[in-house]
Please model this.
Amino acid sequence: MTDFKNIEERISAYLDGEMTADQRITFEDDLERDSALATRLSKWEATDLMLGGSIPAPDTDHLDDLFKAAQSHQSPWPIRRVAAMAAGFLLGGAGGYGLHFAQAPQSQPEVIIVTASATAAHRMFSAEVRHAVEVSADETDHLQTWLTKRMGREMKVPVLDAYGLKFIGGRMLPFEDRAAAQYMYETSDGERLTLFMTRSENEAKTSLRYLEEDDLTTARWQDGPWVFILTSPLERDALTPIAAEVQDTLI
Amino acid sequence: MAKFEYQLKEAMPHLWRYAFSLTRERHSSDDLVQDSIERALRKRHLWKPAQPLRPWLMKIQLNVFRDKYRARVRLNEVPFVAEHAGSVSDAAWQDRSELNSVLSRMRELPETQLQALQLVAFAGLSYAEAAEVLDVPLGTIMSRIARARARLNDEPTPVAHGIRSVT
Model:
């Protein structure tokens, strides 16, 4: 093993898992004694994570397509499944891509966890026929009052009939140690759209951000501590005016 | 035969992320990955089964990039950040400005440091493998990575104590 020429090389090698066991033990002893070093390590680690998160991860299907295309020497553009490429990103860190030293799940940016929760909740409950919601639309007043109390903010149900979306009802969900809410809508074709809301520990104000993965489009934004995530099989263009309407109602 | 394809498929997520770090754009990443696999398949007889495939692939991709893509990327001046503005930049959501400054520092890294960083951080190679791809000693990779990281974290360039020359 090459010797380290300075502390920066040691921090780097530690982050990259390039130390021998002895080197690692010595370094970890140093970390315990030297809080400035520990702080510096966390900062470098956070930067690595941020950088890793800035690069999208394509999903397996898309990569398979690329592989097959290369294999058969077809045209350079046989398949463009750009939408599918973001899918793997939500699992970032777990799949062996990304910065390979950045695997601590608790270091995942909160937004990824929120989005993953919203998507999981969408998939789980939108597939339900009879138990899609906990409180149905005919008890909308009750639902609003209940969720307003539990969430600690006004929880008026946005009216989306103009977009062909009928309100079905809603439910409360756990998100980490706090409450989240899910409102569900349905088109005449039976396609479902959910709105997921929860409180973030970090305040921010963002514009709309989209993520297209597999068959679902996600639109999300944050207003102060409140995070809103719309999930549906609708196209992004169709989702935009709906998101605007929801923003107006729940401002 | 099967081993080659198996390893190739397994390396694909890293291959794509590495391509993205080079081209900074999705469609070009797809193109680059596809070209690289085609070249790898054509040259598979040159690969020795005893050697790991991943560094071999990354080297091919780096060469394809140099041959065919670099001029295009420079020409377009594709900003690294724009790709994420509306779609995938989850990490950036909370601390966008911090990410922007890290990315802009990355753009300003000297080529040699950037290459080493991309191979380790995005292509998933070990220092030894990156050293092989770039054909430099392992110690050089280590110092380039450390210096790149110091810069990304807005710290002064580390000084090498000792006689090893760092380039």
